[in-house]
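quick one, 323 residues, struct below
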Amino acid sequence: MSESTPVKQDEGSKARQLLGMKGAASGETNIWKIRLQLMKPITWIPLIWGVVCGAASSGGYTWGLEDFVRAFTCMLLSGPLMAGYTQTLNDFYDREIDAINEPYRPIPSGAIAVRQVVTQIVVLLVAGLGVAYALDLWAGHEFPTMLSLTLLGTFLAYIYSAPPLKLKQNGWAGNYALGASYIALPWWAGHALFGELNWTIVVLTLIYSLAGLGIAVVNDFKSVEGDRQLGLKSLPVMFGITTAAWICVLAIDIFQAGMGAYLIGIGQNLYAAIVFLLVIPQITFQDMYFLRAPLENDVKYQASAQPFLVLGMLVVGLAIGRV
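---
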């Protein structure tokens, strides 16, 4: 039994490394696994879910093969291609900070050459733009909505990671840009693919993205030491661990509940009640894990509480689709 334990831990560490999660083993030599690690597949999930919420809010999605394939293609665009592009670009510009916080990451560990990383960034970007244009043609858009949203996402990813703006240097601007990219952008894409994107959806999801700001803050706790050394003004660095943890959970809970209030305002009372009920276990796990030990429990907190937020997003999308 004692001889098998290290093997299991090593396998678990490699799995975390492949998914792009905190805590990993070094020494991977398979170039395709290294490339996948750069793309952080764990980060694709909220963007894929955002497309589902957008399709629901459009009211135009039907359960047929063509709509399913269109939605799946949009998920491919938002997740593996554009989120993969964003994460690879971020790793490229975060080489120095990763050498402090996560030296096992592919670039600081020397597992992949910088020129190979640049090639991956370009390939993912070109593929994303191509798929977006194809979706516009498929949906019959007179204006290239999907391509425009993809270009906007590309721009946000660049100014988030790259100098001179490097929005991630500022905890407020960087985390909101990240939250909007994870909630609003894929939601707009899913909605535009099956309906008409309108200002109500745009404004509503931008407000909802303030809950995404709270999610984004969670990621700052794992890199607080490197951020402090390099002068990056993340919220944990600016306000301290405890205050930043409270900012995180309050942003999530307040704006999730705010969406419930909005649903009452448009007469969707049953859906509003479901959203409010989902906030309760969310708060429970926040207290159990994150507020008590944010540095140790960030991953456990995300796994336990975040599903209630994303389920709430779908409930909101379904309610809007009924209006």
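The chain has 16 helices and no strands.
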